[in-house]
Amino acid sequence: MPILIEARFAFHLPVPTDVLLQFEAAEIPEQKILANSTRLSTSEHCARVPAQDEIGERIWIRAEGNFEVAYRAKVELTRQLEPLENFAALSPHNMPGGTVEYLFDSRYCPADAFQPFVDARFSNLSGGARIAAIRDWIYDNFTYVPGSSTTATGAAESFIVREGICRDYAHMLVTLARASTIPARYVACYAPGVDPPDFHAVAEVFLADPYTPDGGIWQIVDATGMADPADTVKIGVGRDAADVSFLTSFGPNDFRSSSVRVTKE
Amino acid sequence: MPILIEARFAFHLPVPTDVLLQFEAAEIPEQKILANSTRLSTSEHCARVPAQDEIGERIWIRAEGNFEVAYRAKVELTRQLEPLENFAALSPHNMPGGTVEYLFDSRYCPADAFQPFVDARFSNLSGGARIAAIRDWIYDNFTYVPGSSTTATGAAESFIVREGICRDYAHMLVTLARASTIPARYVACYAPGVDPPDFHAVAEVFLADPYTPDGGIWQIVDATGMADPADTVKIGVGRDAADVSFLTSFGPNDFRSSSVRVTKE
Amino acid sequence: MPILIEARFAFHLPVPTDVLLQFEAAEIPEQKILANSTRLSTSEHCARVPAQDEIGERIWIRAEGNFEVAYRAKVELTRQLEPLENFAALSPHNMPGGTVEYLFDSRYCPADAFQPFVDARFSNLSGGARIAAIRDWIYDNFTYVPGSSTTATGAAESFIVREGICRDYAHMLVTLARASTIPARYVACYAPGVDPPDFHAVAEVFLADPYTPDGGIWQIVDATGMADPADTVKIGVGRDAADVSFLTSFGPNDFRSSSVRVTKE
Amino acid sequence: MPILIEARFAFHLPVPTDVLLQFEAAEIPEQKILANSTRLSTSEHCARVPAQDEIGERIWIRAEGNFEVAYRAKVELTRQLEPLENFAALSPHNMPGGTVEYLFDSRYCPADAFQPFVDARFSNLSGGARIAAIRDWIYDNFTYVPGSSTTATGAAESFIVREGICRDYAHMLVTLARASTIPARYVACYAPGVDPPDFHAVAEVFLADPYTPDGGIWQIVDATGMADPADTVKIGVGRDAADVSFLTSFGPNDFRSSSVRVTKE
After folding, report:
1. Residue B205's closest CA among B233, B182, B227, B187?
2. Which residues contact D168 (CB under 8 A, 6 or more apart)?
3. 3-class state of residue A190 by DSSP
4. Which residues contact residue A157 at a Cβ distance below 8 angstroms, ignoring those fewer than 6 apart?
5. Measured between CB atoms, does A242 come within 8 Å of chain B?
6. Is B156 in the C-facing interface, judged by CB distances under 8 Å?
7. Which of C43, C62, C93 has the most D C-beta neighbours within 10 Å, making it the best mutation to test the interface with D?
8. SS in 3 state form for C31-57?
9. Contacting residues of A for B96, CB less than 8 Å apart
């Protein structure tokens, strides 16, 4: 059953400004783009570059004045999913080169400091079973409170205040996964069921899969419980939210409005 | 004139442990490896994976007990270097996809917060001239004090205490460059002149170069003033020091000793 | 020439809640209260307790529903003021017991870390001359931007972003003074000239004065340049803003409105 | 049964330096000093000032070269102690003025941020019963690891790494108590049973006691479990460790040695 996506946002650039956009469903094997349409206001410059890990594209624009983005897509998902508990951990020494950076601390995910916590709290679990337990622990101990965090909030603060939005839930899961020596990245996405409807964010972890050439497979995990991994359309990935904003402005920018609608056909 | 490198380090693993090593001169166009030898203690497992940005390799081992690394290399450098002041800034909208992540905040480099500072302090400068001014500002305002920082120290703390080692100088430069919308990465390296002799770290910034297919070129910058970019042998690159340690242990590890000797033939 | 103060604020307590208020001009030798009037909504409980360093009072209330505070006062100031440059530093070993706590780190003022900075930047200055230089440095390097900081912002963050409001300016001055081994405290106050009119905050430093029994005297310093120390009416003092809020609620509280008017008769 | 204390420490001051010492058992009603002897190396200047909350004294010295402190005391304790569970919480609006500052955030105790955590974890408990539960939670979740923390470590970091020394245990308890609107301070002390023998630190909380003029009483709490409140000899109190170090040097200082011995007669 395809996923239908409609996203619009508008902003105003008081002076000519470079802006980086990343809002389109990524064309990757597990996501078949059946139809799509991207309309952008006219700009002095517009170029596409590949995004992180070659998942999706970023769009560079240089523009001035009012700028609007209107995006529609119909996406069929063929993601290979299994209960997390079915996956063993991949030993570090078997991890492919491209996953190694996802073991390390990043801006919002200071994983190293959390090693004693995960070792004590999830001591008897490993691999996917540990990730499932971490997901449930976050779900049980955190409260979803729109407006409770800012762009400065990282997992160290979230671990203390125990509230936040999808971004904070994803950072917390990424942090505790990396502290468990499981590669984890941040995924900007669209998903039906997100309430209030908005751009969404989840985590993705790399677990052992003997049937893949790499020896492992990325699996989506949403600690907010709002999105079903089977229905989640990836936009892009990164170390954490620092890497995959739908809008990054390199100069003054007045954000005006946004609306996101995601449904199953 | 080739650079001669001799590096040795030893550690003890009380139990079978996965360890990630990255200490060899990277084979990249600007670095010709004339001769080299890597000797490692025997291990249960040993595998090479490409390192970040395909610069150099990481070595995964799984081993127990005493482990020694002995590395020798003779490297000829053909790095294209010009005074930083000769380089203009590359407009963000012209930046290739692979450089975009180097604009963003990372674990030790919270660049965003430094925008007002760089805008005020280096307001009339851009591109390579700004980088040169940033390098000189760090050199003038920081004191090189071995032991003054820890693995928890990031550029926010260094900016306050104004002392540190090569790692902290590199983080500070990377941070202020990114705050200036200039892509910057962290480079683990060998260089003659480092005192006391040790593994070294510098920064690298991406500036406009109309003669390259990408429109830009990475240039090495060492705010400590100890290493000449012409003689600097890159081991690997990353967002910051979180990404390019010569030794990362995924379990208990007693570090025993290290020695580094770098000379010009 | 007396200072006339008019302050009003209102809030709503959805459930019976304990609230701490501190908004009245302190009765201290240098401040003669010529006339004053405090009107509070009725409350289940209302008690006055002495505030920090016996400067001013705090009012505990327990109330529910709408609560309003209306305060008017006419205050004559007889503060002993001299140019900061006239004051020498008091040697630490001569500091009275009550000033010692104002040498130490507090929540928003991590002074210790700033020792290398003040030693390098203000090396040739001591006592009042150093404080004047610190005040001028903050004034020159910071931008007053309402809304740029939050209640989580401390001097470490302000030193990086170099913008803030009176509270941040006061924290920065307190921090750099303590880093210079000069006792410094935070002062909540009223002052004409504050723009937009509001509760104000300044710093106070303890410098040598051979004519006092203590050997020293507190002097007001306002790095924002908005308030004249001669016209500044102290409400209360503390280590930093954590100690002297005009309203601290120990339960849910909807803040409704406030207005402050301070004039010279 | 009196407590016998023997403490010695030595340091070297390369240049004439001001130093603040605080190491003697405080003369307070609950602590009767039966005998004591303080021997200090000769110094250019030596003066005693009252310490925080008038509990104990601080000694200012100005000296150069080798400096030694030798302290012996015999102290009889008549502390009024009851199981924590017997104490109700004191309503904020009944708290005396001198306890109010112990509700607020301090350098190492960012209590505000922990409100959601204590509300969730200890929701059904108040007053002394909540403090007992907090003490037990820290004891159960933290590991005592000498050397695991530094003077920069606060309760936010300790809450994540879940290891530390007495100082960190005390900071954590103070933080969670204040987050529960219970005044809490940091107590430097001597106690038998501390292993390895050293200066010790515990927390003290202010709980309701209808038989006291203030309506409340301070009660010692040691989350490390090493010291019995009945045998704990207070040196001094403060907001946190920033306030009560046994040695604070305002200039270069080479610490040489210390030994502490505390026994019951």
Report:
1. B182
2. D142, D149, D153, D155, D158
3. strand
4. A149, D113
5. yes
6. yes
7. C93
8. EEEEEEEEEECCCCEEEEEECHHHCCE
9. 49
Task: Look up the CATH number of the domain holding residue A184.
Answer: 3.10.620.30
| Chain B touched by A244 (CB under 8 Å) | no
* Pair A97, A203 in one domain: yes
pLDDT digits (tens, 9 = 90+) for A189-232: 999 999 899 999 999 999 999 999 999 999 999 999 999 999 99
Domain count across chain B: 2
Give the pair of three-digit tokens for residue A184: 């984890």
Instruction: State the ipTM, two decimals.
Output: 0.94
Cβ–Cβ < 8 Å for A232, A218: no
Residues of B in contact with C162 (CB under 8 A): 116-117, 120
Q: Are D90 and D72 contained in the same domain?
A: no
With respect to residue C233, please indicate whether it lies within any of the assigned structural domains. no
Specify if B235 maps to a domain. no
- Asked if A92 and B18 come within 8 Å (Cβ–Cβ), the reply is yes
Task: Write out the DSSP string of D82-108.
Answer: --GGGPPPPPGGG--HHHHGGGS-BTT
| Burial (CB count within 10 angstroms: exposed 0-12, middle 13-18, buried 19+), residue A179 | buried
Q: Left (φ > 0), alpha (ψ -120 to 50) or beta: where does D114 sit?
A: alpha
State the CATH number of the domain containing residue A54: 2.60.40.2250
Q: What is the pTM of this model?
A: 0.94
* D124 and D163 fall within a common domain: yes
Both A66 and A127 in one domain: the answer is no
Put simply, whether A50 touches B (Cβ < 8 Å) is: yes
Rounded to the nearest 10 degrees, what angle do helices C127-141 and C166-179 cross at? 140
Asked if B60 and A20 come within 8 Å (Cβ–Cβ), the reply is no
Q: Is residue B90 part of a domain?
A: yes
C-alpha C63/C-alpha A222 separation (Å) is: 42
Looking at every residue in chain C, the average pLDDT score rounds to 96
Task: Determine the Cα–Cα distance for residues D117 and A161; give it in Å rounded to an integer.
Answer: 6
What is the average pLDDT across C69-88? 96
Which residues in chain B touch residue A58, judged by CB atoms under 8 angstroms apart? 97, 100
CA separation for the pair D140, D239 (Å, rounded): 25
Nearest to A203 by CA among A169, A231, A228: A169
- D17 to chain C, any CB pair closer than 8 A? The answer is no
On whether both A95 and A210 belong to a single domain, the answer is yes
**Residue ranges making up the domain that contains D145:** 84-228
Which tokens sit at D196? Answer: 């390895």
Using DSSP, state whether B178 is helix, strand or coil: helix
Q: In chain D, whose CA is at the least distance from the CA of A158? A: D113
Tokens of D47: 């003066």
Q: Which two tokens stand for residue D41?
A: 């190396």
C41, part of any domain: yes
* Same domain as A211, residue A118: yes
pLDDT for the residue numbered B49: 96
Residues C103 and C180 reside in one and the same domain: yes
Residue-level pLDDT at D1: 85
Q: Are both A88 and A211 inside the same structural domain?
A: yes
